[in-house]
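#dry-run=false #mode=assembly
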Amino acid sequence: MASTIASTIIDPTVSSSVSTKKGRMPRAARAASLAGARVGLLENTKRNAADLLDGIGEALVRDLGAAELVRKTKKQFALPLTAEVVAELSESCDVVVVGVGDCGSCSAAAVADGIALERAGIPTAVICTEAFASTSQAMAELKGDPDFPYILTEHPVANLDAGQLVDRAAHLVPDVVARLTAPASASAQSAADSALSVPV
Amino acid sequence: MTAVDTRPLDPAAATEVAEHLYANGWTDGLPALPATDETVERFLAETDRDPDAVVARHLALDRTVTVRDVAVHAIMAGCLPEYFPAVLTAWDALAADRAANGGGWQSTSGPAPLVIVNGPLRDRLDVNSGGGVLGPGFRANATIPRAIGLTVRNGFGIRPHGFEQATQGLPGRWTMGIAEAEEASPWEPFSVDGGLEAGEDAVSVMLLRTCEFVDNRHFTDPVQVLRDFADTIQRSGSWIFRHSCVGILMNPDHARVLAEAGMSKQDVRDWLVAHSGKTEAELAAVGKGLSRLPDGPFPPDHFHPVFADASPKSLPIIVAGSPNAAMSMVFRVFGEWSGRSFPVR
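#status=ok
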C-alpha cells in the first residue's frame, strides 16, 4: 500500500527540464615545481582576499622561482567564472590561486571555479575558510569532483590585520604549493598532509 | 466527486504520506502535501504558460526550474490552484532580482522573500492586507512564499547546512506574503511605484534581512512619526555597505496622518532620505567607519546618508496592517531589489 502511494507522488527534486548532469571532471596535469610558472591570483573582492593572495603569490616568486604574478579580480563573487574568463586565465597563467571563499555563495563558487580551471588544464589551489566546508564540499560533489582538494583555512580572514595576513599567507604557502605541483618526494607529501586541508 | 466526498477521510494514510515527504527530505520542516500528476494538471490549467518553459534558473548551481516544477512545489507548499499565477509571477520578479540571481539563496544572511500582491487579485485569492498582515492565519499569505522556499530547496537543491549557509536565518522566512491595503491607503498603489497601472494584478518581490517595528501612536506632529522612522532606519547594526535599501510596511494610520499633513508618498521618501544617516564618528564608534572607501577619509562630523537616492527602489513604502494601533514595520532589503512590479500571468 505504502509503495503504491509513494509511486504516484512526484519527486520534487527531479526537474522536468533536460538534465545537464556531466560525468566526473578531469583534473589538470601538474609540473614538479613552480619554477618559471606564471601564477594567476584570482581574488574575489572579499575583504583581505587580494592581500592574502598577494602574500602567497610573492612567496611563490621569491622562494620557489615562479616567473610572474597575474592579478585578476572576480567581481561577481557569487557566480561561476564565465567560459571567457576561464579561457583568458588558461592563456595567461600556468597555475591559479583562487580565494577567499568566506561566504555562503562565494565559497561554493570558488570551488566551482577551481574545478572549471582544472578541467581547462590549469592546476588550481582554492582557498575557503573552515566555516564553509559543507557548502564547498556540496559544490565539489555537484560539479563532479567530490574529492576536489580545496584548502580550508581558519575563519575569519576578513578581519585579520596586516601582520596577521602575512602570517596566514606564510602558513598557507606549503599547502598551495602542494595543490599546484605533482608530489615530488615523500617529505613534500607529508608536509602537504600535515597542512590544514581536505585529504585528497 | 460526491462519491469521494462521502468516503471517510483516512488520517493514517495522510500521516503516512506526510512522513514519506519528510523521510525524503522534501519539506522545510513543516508538513507538506503530495504532488501528483493529477494535481499538477489542475495547477497548469490556471495559466497559459508552456508547462516546460523555464521560470527559474540558478546559474551557480546549474539548475533550471520549469512551470511544471513550480506547480509541484506550490502544491507541496499548500497553495490552491488559483494561487499558481501569483507564484509564477513571483518567480518573474525574482528573475529580475540581483540578489536572488547572485548568491542570495546561499547567503549567510538567510534572506526571506517578501511577496507583495496588488490589484483585484487580492480579493480573489483572499490575500490578507489588514490585521496580522505578516501572519499567521491566511493561506495565500503563508503558502505563496512557501512555494518559493520549496523551489529553492527542492528545485535548486539549496538546503540548510549544504548550499544554504544562513548564519541564523530570519523569523518568517518563506511565509512573508502580503497584500497592500490599497483601499486604506491615501496614496497610489505600490505596484504603480513598480511601473504598472493602478488596478492591475501585480506581484512584487524583494529579499529581506530583517524587520523592526515602529510603535508611534501618541504623536502630535507628523514630523515626530518621520523622526521615529528615521531613527529605526539608520540603525548601525544592519549597516554594512555605503548605502542600504530600507522599506516601510506602513500602517494605514501613519499613512493617513502623513497624507493629511499634505505629504505624498514621494514627500515622505524625500524627508526620510534627507534625515536618515549617521556621522563618520558614529559609524567609527561601532567599527563601521567608511573612511577606507575611495572617497575617504571623512571628518568625524561628515554625514553619511543611509539611502543612495529617494526612489521607490531605495525606499519602498507599502501600506498594510490594521489601523487599530499606529504601528509600522521597517524592513531591510538584502542588497537591492529590482524596483519593479510584475503583471500576474
